[in-house]
Every structure is written in structure tokens, then in C-alpha cells.
């Protein structure tokens, strides 16, 4: 499993967003980024996390942050997710799992004794230069935006 520390350069990526447009991490140079990884669109924990970021979006952007969500769902799934919950931020479709692997969040999981590969829920805070400020390892889906603010305090 990859480990990132404060000051490490965040791996760049280019992938499609929910609108089919190519988005790269480098597109956000000069802005701070909340890059959050989540397992699946339209599941209870992921809904709670996305809605928490939505509800606090203005506050986060006021602090100079862009919010970017990443899962292995496709663009169509992301578009439905965005529409259903009126999400004002970018969702990246990492269908080839390139980004989740670069960030070390594609991991073996265990549910009811069954092992499988999936996305670990993690949030990376990235500065204007593309360097990692901190990594939130244990995400509280209902308070994810507050965790971001606490991590910066």
C-alpha cells in the first residue's frame, strides 16, 4: 500500500468527469483541492459523504478549495449521482482504476468473510502547488467537510 506524507507531490492524472470532459489534477494548479475517493455512487455512505461536501461546498470554495470526487464508476453513473443529489463539484470516472492505484486506495476489502478488491474511502488535501497537505485516512461520511477543516486547523 502506498503511503503519502505532507509535502509529497500528488500524482497527476487525466480522466473523464461526469460530463465526459477530460480533467487533470494539474488543471487545478493555483487552487487547493479536496480529492476524495469513495467506493460507489448511490450507496448510503457515499451519498452521505457527497451531500456533506455539497452542503458545505460554498464554505470550502470560500476557503480556496475545489472539491473533486473519484470512484471507479463510469461517467453515466456519475451523471445520475450528480443530478440526483445536485452535486456542484467534479466527479472523476476512474473506470480503468489508474487513479485509485496511483493513490494507493485500491485495496483488498473484506465483507462478511468475503474478500474482494475495492476503493478505500480516503481524502487527500492538496495545496496550490500540487503537494499533499494531509491525508484523512478514517473518513466520517456525515462530517467529511468538517474533517477537512479540522485537518487544516
Automatic annotation (TrEMBL):
<comment type="similarity">
    <text>Belongs to the peroxiredoxin family. BCP/PrxQ subfamily.</text>
</comment>
<dbReference type="GO" id="GO:0004601">
    <property type="term" value="F:peroxidase activity"/>
</dbReference>
<comment type="subunit">
    <text>Monomer.</text>
</comment>
<keyword id="KW-0676">Redox-active center</keyword>
<keyword id="KW-0049">Antioxidant</keyword>
<dbReference type="InterPro" id="IPR036249">
    <property type="entry name" value="Thioredoxin-like_sf"/>
</dbReference>
<feature type="domain" description="Thioredoxin">
    <location>
        <begin position="4"/>
        <end position="153"/>
    </location>
</feature>
<dbReference type="InterPro" id="IPR013766">
    <property type="entry name" value="Thioredoxin_domain"/>
</dbReference>
<keyword id="KW-0560">Oxidoreductase</keyword>
<keyword id="KW-0575">Peroxidase</keyword>
<dbReference type="InterPro" id="IPR050924">
    <property type="entry name" value="Peroxiredoxin_BCP/PrxQ"/>
</dbReference>
<protein>
    <recommendedName>
        <fullName>thioredoxin-dependent peroxiredoxin</fullName>
        <ecNumber>1.11.1.24</ecNumber>
    </recommendedName>
</protein>
<keyword id="KW-1015">Disulfide bond</keyword>
<comment type="function">
    <text>Thiol-specific peroxidase that catalyzes the reduction of hydrogen peroxide and organic hydroperoxides to water and alcohols, respectively. Plays a role in cell protection against oxidative stress by detoxifying peroxides and as sensor of hydrogen peroxide-mediated signaling events.</text>
</comment>
<dbReference type="InterPro" id="IPR000866">
    <property type="entry name" value="AhpC/TSA"/>
</dbReference>
<dbReference type="Pfam" id="PF00578">
    <property type="entry name" value="AhpC-TSA"/>
</dbReference>
<dbReference type="InterPro" id="IPR024706">
    <property type="entry name" value="Peroxiredoxin_AhpC-typ"/>
</dbReference>
Amino acid at each position: 500500500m502506498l503511503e503519502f506524507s505532507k509535502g509529497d507531490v500528488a500524482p497527476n492524472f487525466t480522466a473523464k468527469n461526469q460530463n465526459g470532459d477530460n480533467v487533470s489534477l494539474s488543471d487545478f494548479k493555483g487552487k487547493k483541492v479536496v480529492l476524495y475517493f469513495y467506493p460507489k455512487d448511490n450507496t448510503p455512505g457515499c451519498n452521505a459523504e457527497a451531500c456533506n461536501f455539497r452542503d458545505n461546498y460554498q464554505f470550502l470554495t470560500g476557503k480556496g478549495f475545489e472539491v473533486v470526487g473519484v470512484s471507479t464508476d463510469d461517467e453515466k453513473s456519475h451523471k445520475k449521482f450528480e443530478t440526483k443529489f445536485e452535486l456542484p463539484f467534479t466527479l472523476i470516472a476512474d473506470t480503468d482504476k489508474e487513479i485509485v492505484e496511483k493513490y494507493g486506495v485500491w485495496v483488498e476489502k473484506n465483507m462478511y468473510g468475503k474478500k474482494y478488491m475495492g476503493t478505500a474511502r480516503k481524502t487527500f488535501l492538496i495545496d496550490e502547488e500540487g503537494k499533499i497537505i494531509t491525508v484523512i485516512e478514517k473518513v466520517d461520511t456525515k462530517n467529511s467537510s468538517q474533517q477537512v477543516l479540522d485537518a487544516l486547523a
